Amino acid sequence: MKRMHIHVAVEDLNDSIRFYSAMFGNKEPTVLKSGYCKWELTDPAVNFAISQRGAKPGVDHIGIQVETDAELQEMNARFIAAKLPVQEQTETTCCYARSDKAWTIDPQGVAWETFRTSKLHRSTVSPTIERKHKRNQRPPAARLLNPL
Fold first, then answer.
1. Are residues 111 and 141 in contact, defined by beta-carbon separation less than 8 angstroms?
2. Which terminus of the chain has a lower count of CB atoms within 10 Å, N or C?
3. Which domain holds residue 134?
4. Total domains in the fold of the chain
5. Where are the alpha helices (DSSP H) in 5-120?
């Protein structure tokens, strides 16, 4: 099963947790860490994350979460067949999980991620990883078309 992924940058995490928890029928977050929260819902089938590390409030990126390597390869092949810019990441640590990913960017400049998570992390992300995702850093797909 594929699951839609949406990551929204927020200014106030606690207010946003209250809002989205109510929207999702008072479901408890799947992951709740400093500056980060995620719900993995089955109805609707969505991995919805919020954090305080985006460049500005609003949609940070959208993605498709897959369950198998074959599904990830299929999604990546779609990008390549469409001649879209792609940045692949293997065994990357982000959002308290280890995942294989591919990033692209749509015509509006919205970053899209496809990923398969292999392991969830209970502890906080290492300082090295956290520095890579500090506030005001664009997602990898945004760097495909406009490198810094």
1. yes
2. C
3. 3-145
4. 1
5. 13-23, 69-81
